[in-house]
């Protein structure tokens, strides 16, 4: 089983993202479930959603305590204590931010993570360019396809088209494809990097 946990804010399409990811898994013949959790349903309040993907049926619908992948749709949530809870050293991390991960002030959270398994992408700006609105969810799904190799971009875009019809669907598909290309390029660079992972902020300071 592969588990993904989304952290975002109300109005960013966090729950919709988890649902579309599960639909993409169904398209590939896999089993999946999407589970939303609301602290508050008002716009701007923190929202968490989960998606599980497996090769066999799943019964449990409990919250994901140890995600294989963590998708942070709003970078302002990165300092909340529970956002990185349970994140394993071999996991994937995707952050919606205009800043590179090294400049986000979360060096201790990145320690031990492989460079090729982490990425930041300005999904909000991509959404503005393609949708005319700052809704980053579909762009982040495309970025996730490039980062984790769990689901194909074609399956994700098919799920997007099922959710959004006509021109709106195609605009969201373009946003996903644009983010996919950016993260795929990051991943290729990181795979060529000599370092295996990130150092903590404390270790980096010691080297200076």
Summarize the structure.
The chain has one domain (2-207): Pyruvate-ferredoxin oxidoreductase, PFOR, domain III (Pyruvate-ferredoxin Oxidoreductase, domain 3), CATH 3.40.920.10. The protein is built from 7 helices and 6 strands.
Query: What is the level 1 CATH name?
Result: Alpha Beta
Count helical runs: 7
What global shape is seen?
globular
Task: Indicate the CATH topology.
Answer: Pyruvate-ferredoxin Oxidoreductase, domain 3
* DSSP helix fraction: 40-55%
| CATH architecture descriptor text | 3-Layer(aba) Sandwich
Number of strands: 6
Topology:
Blueprint: E1 2-9, H1 14-27, E2 31-38, E3 46-54, E4 69-72, E5 92-96, H2 107-110, E6 118-121, H3 123-131, H4 137-148, H5 153-163, H6 166-192, H7 201-207
Parallel strand pairs: 1-4, 4-5, 5-6
Antiparallel strand pairs: 1-3, 2-3
Helix pairs in contact: 1-4, 1-5, 3-4, 3-6, 4-5, 4-6, 5-6
């Amino acid at each position: 089983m592969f588990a993904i946990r989304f952290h975002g804010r109300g109005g960013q399409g966090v729950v919709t993202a988890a649902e579309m990811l599960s639909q993409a898994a169904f398209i590939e013949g896999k089993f999946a479930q999407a589970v939303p959790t609301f602290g508050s349903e008002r716009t701007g309040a923190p929202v968490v959603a989960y998606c599980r993907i497996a090769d066999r049926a799943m019964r449990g619908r409990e919250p994901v305590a140890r995600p294989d992948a963590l998708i942070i749709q709003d970078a302002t949530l990165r300092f909340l204590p529970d956002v990185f809870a349970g994140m394993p050293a071999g996991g994937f991390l995707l952050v919606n931010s205009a800043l590179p991960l090294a400049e986000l002030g979360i060096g201790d959270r990145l320690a031990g993570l492989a460079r090729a398994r982490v990425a930041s992408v300005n999904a909000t700006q991509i959404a503005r360019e393609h949708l005319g609105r700052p809704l980053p969810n579909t762009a982040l799904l495309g970025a996730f396809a490039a980062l984790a190799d769990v689901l194909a971009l074609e399956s994700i875009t098919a799920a997007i088209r099922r959710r959004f019809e006509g021109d709106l669907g195609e605009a969201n598909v373009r946003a996903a494809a644009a983010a996919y290309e950016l993260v795929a390029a990051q991943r290729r660079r990181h795979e060529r990097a000599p370092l295996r992972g990130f150092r903590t902020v404390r270790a980096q300071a010691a080297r200076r």
